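> forwarded from #structure-qc
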């Protein structure tokens, strides 16, 4: 595999990042995951814009030019022959050479790393036909989840708690309301209405979320953006989540309670189909 590090395209085993990198020492970096279908990037502009916002919120200087980023993404996809999969991009505050809580000087070069992952069968994921199971856990992450930082330890632990419970993912709950999944935005459907948490600093502003809500409204489906509880989710007709790597994924069980009789409903598969069709 060819990867990209700070202006260079290299074989993955030759790519190097400093041990003093701020992301390594302090999780001081942001990332994006853009999916690839039929060799083409999905929603690149959305991801590039969110990246620029994440960098600006953290005062990490000089975001790369949109066109340069697009070129790097395309080059890696072509070079690595990715037909279905994803491009991972990470930008950190760089490696100033010493460990210090204070940010390094503004002219410290940010570290830019990109690699691809091949995921054949991504669009035809058989899990989308049967749905997945989730548990709920307390959301103890920091208060700026709108910034896509690489501080993923708790989401990673949540994923492991889910696996230990024989489930696939965890839905995070704060003050009694679901914020989001470990790495996705969450939804329920009741009486045909799609309910998902409103945007704020409490959740990541999903690029897939924005696209799916737009397509839902275009298809005359009713959308309500507000927080919901696990109890309400258990009483819902359907539940699902969205992300760049899973698109639209039905959820058929929450904390052991079957949703919609434990079977995939009609709204989530329809949104998945529309999303895959419209964004390709
Ligand atoms: N995760 N919420 C969280 C906490 C996320 O980490 C993600 C994405 C989303 C969905 O955002 P989008 O639709 O823009 O992918 C919501 C990526 C896919 C990941 O960490 O792999």
């Amino acid at each position: 595999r060819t990867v990209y590090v700070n202006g260079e395209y290299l074989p993955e085993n030759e790519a190097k990042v400093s041990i003093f990198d701020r992301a390594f020492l302090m999780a001081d970096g942001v990332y994006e995951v853009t999916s690839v279908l039929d060799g083409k990037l999905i929603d690149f502009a959305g991801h590039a814009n969110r990246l620029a916002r994440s960098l600006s919120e953290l005062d990490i200087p000089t975001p790369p030019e949109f066109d340069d980023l697009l070129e790097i993404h395309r080059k890696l996809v072509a070079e690595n022959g990715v037909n279905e999969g994803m491009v991972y991009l990470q930008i950190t505050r760089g490696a100033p050479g010493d460990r210090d809580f204070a940010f390094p000087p503004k002219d410290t070069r940010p570290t830019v790393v990109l690699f691809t992952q091949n995921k054949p069968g991504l669009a035809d994921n058989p899990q989308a036909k049967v749905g997945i199971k989730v548990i709920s856990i307390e959301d103890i992450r920091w208060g700026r989840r709108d910034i896509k930082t690489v501080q993923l330890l708790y989401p990673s632990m949540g994923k492991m708690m889910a696996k230990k419970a024989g489930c696939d993912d965890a839905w995070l709950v704060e003050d009694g309301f679901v914020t989001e999944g470990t790495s996705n935005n969450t939804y329920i459907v009741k009486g045909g209405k799609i309910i998902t948490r409103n945007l704020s600093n409490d959740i990541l502003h999903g690029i897939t979320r924005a696209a799916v809500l737009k397509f839902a409204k275009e298809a005359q489906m009713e959308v309500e953006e507000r927080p919901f509880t696990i109890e309400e989710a258990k009483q819902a007709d359907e539940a699902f989540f969205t992300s760049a790597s899973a698109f639209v994924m039905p959820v058929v069980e929450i904390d052991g309670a079957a949703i919609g009789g434990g079977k995939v409903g009609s709204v989530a598969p329809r949104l998945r189909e529309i999303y895959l069709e419209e964004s390709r």
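QC bot note: The first helix runs from residue 22 to 26. The mean pLDDT is 97.
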